[in-house]
Amino acid sequence: MAVLTDPIADFLTRFKNAARAGNEEFSAPYSKIKADIANILKEEGYIWNYEVVTGKRTELKVKPKFVDGRPVLTDLKRVSTPGRRHYVGSTEIPRVMSGLGISILSTSKGVMSGGNAKRHKLGGELLANVW
Questions:
Q1: Ramachandran angles phi, psi of 27, nearest 5°
Q2: Structural element, H or E, at residue 35
Q3: φ, ψ for residue 6, nearest 5 deg
Q4: Residue-level pLDDT at 3
Q5: What are the tens digits of pLDDT across the range 2-48?
Q6: Within a domain: residue 47?
Q7: pLDDT by residue (tens digit) across 55-112?
Q8: Phi-psi map region of 16: left, alpha, beta (phi>0 left; psi -120 to 50 alpha)
């Protein structure tokens, strides 16, 4: 297996590709931050469910959400990368697609959506924008 320099971008790319291809589920190598991101995507309605499968390798199985045969996910963008981190304060958290999308942040209280971080007046690393 190849060594990934950005496992979060790999997870988000797998999600986008599976949604666009119409796949019922996809799997990615497990990590706690990916599980936290999947939990936010579930709370915000972008995926049906996810589960952690243990075996030879621990994997995260995710089921993207479709409405009338079309994916709920339109697109996503990885903002902060390992080579260029992007930090925002609580007042600088961007509104994605005029409120139709979400931003995902890594804060001192854990990974959370942009709206949740604003409510708790927390800033942090802007991981991705999803719409």
A1: -125, 155
A2: helix 32-43
A3: -135, 85
A4: 66
A5: 667 999 999 999 999 999 999 999 999 999 999 999 999 999 999 99
A6: yes
A7: 999 999 999 999 999 999 999 999 999 999 999 999 999 999 999 999 999 999 999 9
A8: alpha
Name the residue range of residue 118's domain: 76-130
pTM attached to this predicted model: 0.94
- Same-domain status, 36 and 13: yes
- Is pLDDT above 80 for 127? yes
Q: What is the pLDDT of residue 4?
A: 77
Q: Residue 30: is it exposed, middle or buried by C-beta count within 10 angstroms (0-12/13-18/19+)?
A: middle
**Pair 14, 66 in one domain:** yes
- 28 contacts 58 by C-beta, under 8 angstroms: no
Output the six-digit token pair for 113: 């959506």
Q: Could you tell me the two tokens for 1?
A: 């297996």
Whole-number Å distance between alpha carbons of 68 and 72: 10
- Establish if 113 belongs to a structural domain: yes
User: What is the chain's mean pLDDT, rounded?
Assistant: 96
At 107, is the secondary structure helix, strand, or coil?
strand
- 84 and 117 belong to one structural domain: yes
